[in-house]
Amino acid sequence: MVYASGTNKSLPTIAPNAALSTVNFTGLTADKDFMLDQVEFEVKAGQNILNADLDHLFTQVTLKFDSSKIGAVTAIAGANISPSNTNADVILSTGAVTYTGSATAPVAFHLKNTTGTVIVSDSTFITTAPTTTGIVELAGLSINNSVAKALSFKNLTLNPGIKYNLELKVKAPTTVELGGKVWALGNLTYSNGVYGFAQTNDSYGNYWFAGFQLPKVLDGSVNNQKPSTAINGGATDPCSLVLPLNTWRLPTAQEFNTLITNTNAGGVDNPQNINNWDPARWVDTYDGTAGTNLGMFFGSQVNPGADRYKEFYLPYGGSYNDNNTGDSFGSQGLYLLANNQRLQMTGSKNTQGWSINTAAADPNFAMQIRCIKKGL
């Protein structure tokens, strides 16, 4: 019988001449990382090497919390995990574990850092029977200097003797509600038969002709300067092909005109966070630096800063105006709307979004698309 502590903590000793069947280590705590192995070994003259593969009897957990999709952690008061019994008893002859004491007190993680986009802990040991109701709780969590709140991750599977690397990620929202409508937070994309949305709000999507379900082909494999059913498919709304099917659609000109009215001075979606007479439309690069694309924020009179990922933002992806070279990338946004209409926006960095209108779409212009939730 070989036993050890994986954390160099002191362990009970076995009395001389004690029968192994009577040895019961009681009151062990999780931080001792108790390990055990039974090895058949015959003592012979000149033989003094014992090979043992010790098994961990308790549970080891390392925490990694990733908030990079929405910003950086600016404060965290602590993190803990439960359940974990106060003590455990081990029958040495069989390795059987009995969990004793209270299981209500959570065990704290030691965090290596308390700010940044990724928070990482040291390994923490807990004593728990197999469970599917494990909980990790973060206390006093603030992201991007927001009001500190608690955050919980529940129904985690935890088993004795297993080492877990728990990677908990905060997902960025995929929709935003504005003007009583729910909008996608990325432009429409298409790749290998799959319709979806751009990964970041300021990324360009594919370019689409009015009345066709497949985007303009730009790789030079075909001449797609003008639309054709052979290349660009039928008249199906491409938004409707994002999975789950028929949950998204092209927005209408009326819906954008309503959004323009609502974000004008005095509009219901104008917070007037700078003044009372400007529209709540702000032209800027997405994060205010040259590293992201220029576009227009809706619902704010200034760049929303760290909260930009929550906002409705349309990048200026330009268009392909009856050509294969493209026009106005980074200086103008043209978006395809339902019923062969289009939205046009322009304006320079750090200005109010005054220049915005809807009109009929030119059939040979390929434009970006931002989808709207169906049924709303």
Describe what you observe in this structure.
About 5% of the residues lie in helices and about 35% in strands. It is built from 2 helices and 30 strands. The strands form 10 sheets. Strands 6, 7, 10, 13 and 14 form a 5-stranded antiparallel β-sheet that branches. The termini are far apart.
Rg from C-alpha positions?
30 Å
Tell how many strands the DSSP assignment holds. Answer: 30
Q: What's the shape?
A: elongated
Helix percentage range: under 10%
Give the CA-CA distance, first to last residue.
Answer: 68 Å
Structure class: mainly beta
Provide the fold topology.
Blueprint: E1 2-5, E2 24-28, E3 34-37, E4 55-56, E5 59-66, E6 73-75, E7 78-82, E8 87-91, E9 97-100, E10 107-108, E11 118-120, E12 124-126, E13 131-143, E14 149-158, E15 163-169, E16 175-178, E17 181-184, E18 188-191, E19 194-197, H1 229-232, E20 248-249, H2 253-263, E21 281-285, E22 294-298, E23 312-315, E24 320-321, E25 332-337, E26 341-346, E27 351-352, E28 356-360, E29 365-366, E30 372-373
Parallel strand pairs: 5-15
Antiparallel strand pairs: 1-3, 2-8, 3-4, 5-11, 5-12, 6-13, 7-10, 7-13, 8-9, 13-14, 16-17, 18-19, 20-30, 21-22, 21-27, 22-23, 24-29, 25-26, 26-28
Features of the shown structure:
four-stranded mixed β-sheet, single chain, 2 helices, elongated, mainly beta
